[in-house]
Design brief:
Largest sheet: 7 strands, antiparallel
Strand content: 35-45%
Structural class: alpha+beta
CATH architecture: Roll
Number of strands: 11
Number of helices: 3
Order of helices and strands: HEEEEEHEHEEEEE
Distance between the termini: 25 Å
Helix content: 10-25%
Shape: globular
CATH topology: Pnp Oxidase, Chain A
Strand order of the largest sheet: 3-2-6-9-10-5-4
CATH superfamily: Electron Transport, Fmn-binding Protein, Chain A
Length: 170
């Protein structure tokens, strides 16, 4: 497949429509395998398979978390609900340097993979990266789900749906 540069006119036409494509909001958590852990806001998460249960997670190629997932493939995604969205956006929206503690002020639990699961989220899915694919400026990781945990807000909240104004930026 070839790639072509878009004209400014094409970008102006595509951007608002692409931006209106809804996505959920998740916190992707992982470890580097050497004791460091982090979390990042992720909106490009989608179920990719029923059997076995697999989700896809897109990570910007500039983020160190992609290297961590290649080196240490255990990861989790925690679903952000509407009621908690402000707290999660404030904490995870800016990103963290690798040595900065990401989970201060958040209750976490551990499941089968050992990576942090955010207890205040609607729920978490955890598993192991089985494949990855570089697509444009992101790498898509395919996470085979091994365990799930309902969060404190599972029954009371609704998933936060993210709509962007511009389909070419977060």
């Amino acid at each position: 497949m070839s790639t072509t540069e878009l004209s400014e006119e094409q970008r102006q036409t595509i951007a608002p429509i692409l931006g209106k494509t809804p996505s959920g909001v998740f916190i992707l958590t992982a470890s580097d395998g050497e004791g460091n852990e982090t979390g990042m806001l992720a909106s490009w998460v989608q179920q990719a398979s029923f059997e076995p249960p697999i989700i896809s997670v897109a990570v910007n190629s500039k983020r160190y978390l992609g290297e961590w997932l290649t080196k240490s493939p255990a990861a989790a995604v925690s679903l952000v609900g509407k009621a908690q969205s402000g707290k999660f956006f404030k904490q995870f929206g800016k990103g963290f340097d690798p040595e900065v503690p990401a989970f201060e002020g958040f209750e976490v639990s551990r499941g089968t993979t050992g990576v942090p699961l955010l207890s205040e989220s609607m729920g978490s899915l955890e598993g192991t990266v089985t494949q990855q694919c570089v697509v444009g400026d992101h790498t898509i990781f395919f996470l085979q789900i091994e365990n799930a945990l309902q969060g404190a807000a599972f029954d009371e909240d609704e998933p936060y749906v993210h709509i962007r104004k511009n389909g070419f930026s977060y």
